[in-house]
Amino acid sequence: MNRLDATFAKLKAKGEKALIAYIMAGDPSLQDSERLVLGLERAGADVIELGVPFSDPIADGPVIQRAAERALRSGTSLRKILAMVASLRARTQIPLVLMAYYNTIHAFGESGFCRAATGAGVDGLIVPDMPPEEAGELEAQASQTGLDIIYLLAPTSTPDRRAMVARRSRGFVYYVSLTGITGAKLTDMDGVRKNVEKIRKATAVPVAVGFGVATPSDAEQVGAIADGVIVGTAIVRRIGDHQQDARMIEQVGQFVHSLKAALAQRAAAQPS
């Protein structure tokens, strides 16, 4: 059982939900990102999603776009991120998932990337601009090395597509809670509930919900619906706000702790 599967299984056995915290690798530096991963794990994050900076991040809102710009200015590259992951593996076994646009993987080479990623200790991969219909070769290479490909579903996904993505996703299914970019506000919780229920009928793989989760209250509500809650923009905004602060790790960790506490409160309130 890999780290992602083991984490979701452990949380499920305790009646808990996964907090998946997104940061942009290299924002404001790779050294800071390494410290952030360890700090957010201490604060309660169960999985860390590492964004790979890219010059044209079509799925991301302005907060994460600015984080990508800061990371690129600091000299961050995919190879340097993998070296950071390898360094982290001497100190933590928290599941690490890369979110990378396909161009960066193509430039690296699919086969070489999958081998290097798993060799460094990466557990999963999200490629937001690669539809499953075109991911056959990458999926095959990932399967050979044990790298989980995590696909996305949206409110507009058709039943056929929902079934196909649910069948092919490994680690978890990433349900994008709204039709928009990262940082938009989540308003249709009833719609999220209905679509997560539909996905669950098609797969036993955990379902995690992202986009629009910005507060502990949001996390608590989504945690009542899904197996995992993904928080990105709200964390990245705090990194940007405190990037010149010597207490940045502590400040961001306090926010992540509040998210995890809200999930724990929801779990405690559930009937046994």
Tell me what the structure shows.
This protein is α/β, with parallel strands linked by helices and 272 residues long. The protein has one domain: TIM Barrel (Alpha-Beta Barrel), CATH 3.20.20.70. It is built from twelve helices and nine strands. It has a nine-stranded parallel beta sheet. Helix 2 runs parallel beside helix 12 and helix 10 runs parallel beside helix 12.
Structural class: alpha/beta
How far apart the termini lie comes to 27 Å
What is the CATH C-level name? Alpha Beta
Report helical residue fraction. 40-55%
CATH structural fold name: TIM Barrel
Shape from CA axes? globular
Name the strands of the widest sheet in spatial order.
5-4-3-2-1-9-8-7-6
- Largest sheet geometry: 9 strands, parallel
How many domains make up the coordinates? 1
CATH architecture assignment name? Alpha-Beta Barrel
Count of beta strands: 9
N-to-C SSE string, H for helix and E for strand: HEHEHHEHHEHEEHEHEHEHH
What does the radius of gyration come to?
17 Å
The named CATH superfamily: Aldolase class I
Unreliable stretches (pLDDT < 50, length at least 5) are: none
Q: How is the secondary structure organized here?
A:
Layout lengths: L2 H11 L4 E7 L5 H14 L3 E5 L10 H12 L4 H11 L7 E4 L2 H7 L1 H11 L3 E3 L9 H10 L2 E2 L2 E2 L5 H10 L4 E4 L12 H12 L6 E4 L5 H8 L4 E4 L1 H9 L6 H22 L3
Parallel strand pairs: 1-2, 1-9, 2-3, 3-4, 4-5, 6-7, 7-8, 8-9
Helix pairs in contact: 2-4, 2-12, 4-6, 6-7, 10-12
In short:
With 272 residues, the protein is an alpha/beta fold. It has 12 helices and 9 strands.
